Amino acid sequence: xSTLTLTRPLSxxxxxxxxxxxxxxxxxxxxxxxxxxxxxxxxxxxGSIPTFREVGEAVPGLRLVDVYVPIAILxxxxxxxxxxxxxxxxxxxxxxxxxxxxxxxxxxxxxxxAQMALHGAAALVSAVLSVLVGLLVFDVALPEQLxxxxxxxxxxxxxxxxxxxxxxxxxxxxxxxxxxGAAAFxxxxxxxxxxxxxxxxxxxxxxxxxxLPFGAAAQALxxxxxxxxxxxxxxxxxxxxxxxxxxxxxxxxxxx
Length: 256
Hints:
InterPro entries: ABC-2_transporter (IPR052902), ABC2_TM (IPR013525), ABC2_TM_bact-type (IPR047817), ABC_2_transport (IPR000412). Keywords: Antibiotic resistance, Membrane, Transmembrane, Transmembrane helix. There is one protein chain. The chain is an all-alpha fold. 73% of the residues lie in helices and 0% in strands. It contains ten helices and no strands. The two termini are 16 Å apart.
């Protein structure tokens, strides 16, 4: 079970599962709202505060509304991969759906691939929406290092999906998945900078946050937005977390 699996050609069975899961996903207005609408809505609310639109001393040369675009993107990732995806997969396990699938040509792995693809795509749509709203509503410039921004975003998605897969692996029931997801959500949001952007944290705290996947993601996206290539250390942290979490999820994942 790996995020790299998504890059391989889909088998007919996996494609059929993806189509079915997409239909079910469209019928879940709650998930669509929290992943694709809430992060941008929160960004708009924060951006409407006058002090967020003024250049201050906290982040030299930038407004807080500029800094919060990556945070809105990471919020969407966290909503998709920690709050939405694990309960679905654990619910399938809890109801015996994965076990029954193992006796058909559709392998249980197909459900996992479909869920990771759908939630990853929804988070990317939310990311594009946040960037466009920032540009059109608050005059936030597009990332100057666009390719580096894309690399950082892809690695951020990979790390987030891997974390969601791990939560799906260790949670026996959907209630447990909700509880574990909530326990992980708030520390990850703090590391992403929702309450205090990483750039404004004291040096020691900022260094600690940069060792966490979403702290490194916030820094990498911010660097690319400013026109610099994302720090290799931040990209390395994201890649390492993606590999380690994926390996752990594969080790502990159970279909029954």
